[in-house]
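Data deposition worksheet. Section B asks for the primary sequence of the deposited chain exactly as it was used as input, without tags or linkers unless they were present during the calculation. Section C holds the resulting structure in token form. Section D is free text for depositor observations; keep each observation to a single sentence. Incomplete worksheets are returned to the depositor.
Section A, Depositor: J.P.
Section B:
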Amino acid sequence: MALVRELAAEPSVIVADEPTAGLDISVQGELSNLLRALRDRLGLSYLLISHNLNVVGRVTDRVAVMCLGQIVESGPTAALFRAPAHPYTQALLSANLTLDADRRHQRIVLSGELPSPSNPPSGCRFHKRYPMARPKCANEPPPLQTGPGEGSVACHFPLSTTPAVMPQAIVG
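Section C:
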């Protein structure tokens, strides 16, 4: 119903915060299809805020991944999902549930305590949970810059453009 009210105003951009939260998986699929169809038919743009990576992958053309309130990677959705350059993005994507055997990844289980968003760590926001972090990661915040792939990454030592596997120490 909220979507119908939004469309009545003929917007060019719709902000959707967790649009599929609490919905049955079949309803999530229907809503994803509807959002894509409306995007294509009406030329809409969405600012989609979601933890549901299946919806993000299905509805968006570009994506930005945030860690503790800071963008760590952005780029075309398909390219970023295929070959993430930031280790946080890689861990996040490995946790995504999928029925597609070709898209399954070895699950990366992060260790360590999740830092507080109100008091984030110095340097890279992810360094305390990444076993391959170097001193520079803890001391200097990495700037968001052109990554090894098609997007941008905030990492001093981005992963290659081939699908990488994080160190075995954190693989569950």
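Section D:
Helices lie at 2-8, 25-42, 53-59, 77-82, 87-94, 135-139.
The first helix runs from residue 2 to 8.
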